[in-house]
Task: inverse folding
């Protein structure tokens, strides 16, 4: 199984980039993982929130194939404990999911077309975090899930 994370806009903070890079490198030992950053939409000052979400969706949908399993990182999604997230990934592997694509939207969330395309939604917390922080948190949780599945000592419960 391949796993991708697709995000809107670059990560500005160097400390976040260092953390993201650290866990992306660690993930290479467990899964074929790719991180795709789509450039921010330009001239957003002239757009409504709905127009911006629509333009972001156009860019996101270009990155997804018809056979991909799409999961939106969304505040209204399912919330898992780390062990349950590991079990979720294990089920996806067992069910022969070829490409699991997680998506972090822009500052206003997702256009309805993205909800229509996605198979599910996942929330990392009931709290709100910046798009840039969520990238690091998600990639770390993905790494944690694989260490759990392998019985490695990274996760303590």
Result:
């Amino acid at each position: 199984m391949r796993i991708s994370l697709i995000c809107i806009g670059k990560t500005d903070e160097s400390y976040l980039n260092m953390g993201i890079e650290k866990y992306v490198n660690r993930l290479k030992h467990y899964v074929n993982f790719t991180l795709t950053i789509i450039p921010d939409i330009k001239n957003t000052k002239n757009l409504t929130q709905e127009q911006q979400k629509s333009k972001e969706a156009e860019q996101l949908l270009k990155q997804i194939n018809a056979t991909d399993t799409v999961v939106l990182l969304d505040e209204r999604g399912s919330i898992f404990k780390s062990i349950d997230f590991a079990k979720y990934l294990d089920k996806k592997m067992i069910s022969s999911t070829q490409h699991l694509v997680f998506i972090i939207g822009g500052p206003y969330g997702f256009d309805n077309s993205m909800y229509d395309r996605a198979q599910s939604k996942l929330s990392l917390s009931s709290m709100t975090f910046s798009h840039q922080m969520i990238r690091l948190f998600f990639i770390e949780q993905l790494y944690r899930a694989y260490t759990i599945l392998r019985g490695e000592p990274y996760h303590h419960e």
User: Anything to note?
Assistant: Residues 11 and 132 are 5 Å apart (CA to CA).
